[in-house]
Amino acid sequence: MITRQSIIDAHERIRPYVHRTPVITSQSIDDIAGCKIFFKCENLQKVGAFKARGAMNAALSLSEEERKKGIATHSSGNHAQAIARAGKVLGVKSYIVMPRTAPAIKKKGVQGYGGEIFECEPTLEARESTLADVIKKTGAHEIHPFNNYDVITGQATTAKELFEEQNNLDVIIAPVGGGGLLSGTAMATKYFSPSTLVYAAEPEGADDAYRAMQSGKIEKSQANSIADGLLTALGEKNFPIIKENVKAVITVSDQEIIEAMRLIWERMKLIVEPSGAVPLAAVLKSKEEFAGKKVGVIFSGGNVDLEKVTKLFIQ
């Protein structure tokens, strides 16, 4: 379903609507990690996250007839903002189901793009049932946060850009929640840098991808981590791609995530949200695995609830 050409086409399709984000290095972090890291800064992307890519590609891939009644999704935040923005860009309504516990900064972002929010309980079942009700009432077209091939293909453009700037990476590592970014990264690596190994990074408190790689089937997420963007289980379209193309999933504790986030803020002067810091936390935890290698790390987002994160740092 996802080909080399479809990724190239997606990249051209979304080019006018997204940033080509910078790739940044940090000698001090390299010294600490024991490897050379190239950070793909999707925290500087439109809506503050890579999600702008997949949402825009999926929305642009719909026909005018499909789009005219609006677009809809469920999301804890970054995809929600991305769909709301896509709706605004295309001049159609957007309907967003968000758990009531979603970060305030992400709800404000959705509202700022004109998205209509429908709150629900913080469970996958509540999100899906609420979205089904919204779609039934509005006739809007669903764009799933990750279990959608157009979304996956859009997310693949992140790694494609990284490989265009650094074509000799030994490793690329992305965070994993539902698997949209990771499966897209895996497919981009397969087509544009086949010698590069793909790793995933995941919170210990939401380690369903790690368990799924062991069991060979999709596992339920425990959803217990400060990395709020990574608390959902893998999608059925994402898991086969991940199982076939990802070497390993590395899990990290919330404390390790906080320490990595602090390091990024202090050494790189970049604001990265907890989910975005998870890959660096994994590299720092597994120094022997990556020693002396050239490593691509994707900072997936930078939408931080400053009040909440400040408290984490103080603790």
UniProtKB/TrEMBL annotation:
Short name of any one Pfam family annotated for the protein: PALP
Q: Answer whether the UniProt record assigns the keyword Magnesium to this protein.
A: yes
- Cofactor(s) the record lists: Ca(2+); pyridoxal 5'-phosphate; Mn(2+); Mg(2+)
Q: Which UniProt keywords apply?
A: Magnesium, Pyridoxal phosphate
Domain of life of the native organism:
Bacteria
Tryptophan synthase beta chain-like PALP domain location: 15-301
Instruction: Name the species this protein comes from.
Output: Chryseosolibacter indicus
Task: Please state what the protein is called.
Answer: Pyridoxal-phosphate dependent enzyme
Q: Which InterPro entries match?
A: Ser/Thr_deHydtase_PyrdxlP-BS (IPR000634), TrpB-like_PALP (IPR001926), TrpB-like_PALP_sf (IPR036052)
